[in-house]
Amino acid sequence: MYPNGLPQFATPEQRAQFNVDEGYKPHMSISDLRRNLHETVADYNGRLRNTLLRIAKMHEVSAEKKDHIVLVVGHASTVDLAAGHLVKNSRESTEHDLTSSYKKIPVGSTLVLERVQGRRGWTPNLYAIPPVTYTGLSNQFSAAFVLRDAPVVKE
């Protein structure tokens, strides 16, 4: 995977410039993830929802009165589910959404979600980080897809 060896990671001194939480503990262990290799779409939606809501909750209850920046790195489906669960009141992704999300959410896409005082939930800021285009490729995602409403369920 890495023909020239593993990449060099930031040193503790370099990370200190960015206020990295050195005491971070993962929400799920690698062994927990390996146990769920054959999870269903509903399981995947639930795992991502619980993880994203846990991350959001950890920073909402902070006693510190400063802006919090949380970087979540993931696949296209992570961008889709973050918008679905934090912006769209728990819109889940279907199997079709998950298998085709890479067509609507290119590699390197960035979704910025902000907590706005006086508003419920999280608000997307589509202009916080402009998309990058190079040699005809762009990391701009389809806002219509990512910010879509949940499908109406007919009873």
From TrEMBL:
GO molecular function (one): phosphatase activity
Lineage per the UniProt record: Eukaryota, Metazoa, Ecdysozoa, Nematoda, Chromadorea
InterPro entries in alphabetical order: His_PPase_superfam, Phosphatase_SH3-domain
Name of protein: Phosphoglycerate mutase family protein
Organism: Angiostrongylus cantonensis
